[in-house]
Model the fold of this input.
Amino acid sequence: GENVEQHPSTLSVQEGDSAVIKCTYSDSASNYFPWYKQELGKGPQLIIDIRSNVGEKKDQRIAVTLNKTAKHFSLHITETQPEDSAVYFCAASRGGYQKVTFGTGTKLQVIP
Amino acid sequence: ETGVTQTPRHLVMGMTNKKSLKCEQHLGHNAMYWYKQSAKKPLELMFVYNFKEQTENNSVPSRFSPECPNSSHLFLHLHTLQPEDSALYLCASSQAQGQGYETQYFGPGTRLLVL
Done:
């Protein structure tokens, strides 16, 4: 089955700096890669996703890149703000009836 | 709010108790999921229902019993749990399985403590 590894497990950045979270996956047939943000006391919320037919996707301050050859994808947050502090999860799936496999999460702390 | 609600938000139970977790989605979705979230571990998929039919049971012990009476409601019945079952139980929904890359919408979870 699919295995998703996520690094780092914790990340502290100064407000205004950039943050990068990296994930690798094992199943070359995976073609859908969502990223979720989980704030304290809440469930995970989708913040951005990328399909296998594109290499990069951007939404305001967040962007995701995908390298299918190397089987890794990354989340980039620019101009970080204190409200970006949360746990971020990457995930991978073949889509359709296949389950989504999640990484172990990265706790991001943005220091004001 | 994501449109997925869960009750109760917190639950403490003894190993001999029977309790139920409830999930309701107001998004018009047809697929619903139960996940277990433990510290420092990936989200673990437990059960999937698609149009009220169970399509996945991820080797979950029988002390967890799901029920999906309709596409909007999902229950998780608990009995004779073990302390290692203490975790955050998350419910999610999506449009339907098998129709593409379905985004899952999560509820806030039920924090369960088994004594």
Summary: Chain B touches chain A at residues 2, 4, 40-43, 45, 48, 55-56, 58, 90, 92, 97-101, 103-109 (CB under 8 Å).
